[in-house]
# Entry
Amino acid sequence: MAAPLLLIGAGRMGGALLRGWLARGLGPVLIIETNPSPELKRLARRDVTLLKNIDDAPRRLRACVIALKPQILKTEAARLRAIAGSGVPMISIAAGSSIKLMSKAWGNSARIIRAMPNTPGSIGEGISALYAAPNATPRDRKLAESLLAALGETVWVKRETDIDAVTAVSGSGPAYVFLMVECLEEAARKEGLPPSVAHRLARQTMIGAGALLKVDDAPAEALRRNVTSPHGTTEAALGVLMAKDGLAPLIKRAVSAARRRARELAT
# Structure
């Protein structure tokens, strides 16, 4: 039997990873989760084992995947030192938790890979960016990529600092899209549409636009132009959204704020 994977934390993202691994037959999986959900308890079977604490984990592991919030990882990282010291690849999806911070807890020989997935991974439609520490092996990289592929697409970045930008763009990005739906729905109600109609129109418009992006390789700019008739209604709306004080500078400020916060979490 293959050496098990160890998953530290099985909340929303950890749980999504687990479901993806099981669907791909990547078990067995050992899980440490202080507050297991009913679903997680139901998943506990031959290929999934819930452990009470880190000391119960074997030293022979394929990888240790840390799916903890950054604040929790700061306090719990030292407990993983023995596992990291045994040569097990350590794959962290904690935002803002730098390799320097983790190496301080686990030692400089720890083979660390950082990954930043996003919530659409819970339905296999996410994207994860990965960065490998210099001492991570090609085999470590291949394994990390296969594990994160359970959530959707993967992309490698060459600099660790790029992970903070990824966090601000794709990690936090789904919240920006959901807010856009909220705003569109509110605007529809203000124009007199019934709440139920406004809800359906806003939601399905965003879903449909996303689906079109998925199947059409044309740049987003080209797709936007296809919707925009000269002197028409869309052009009138875009005149507001594309003004100097419109959507573009607002999004830039939002992403910049998220990136700053990611950096702050690393200190």
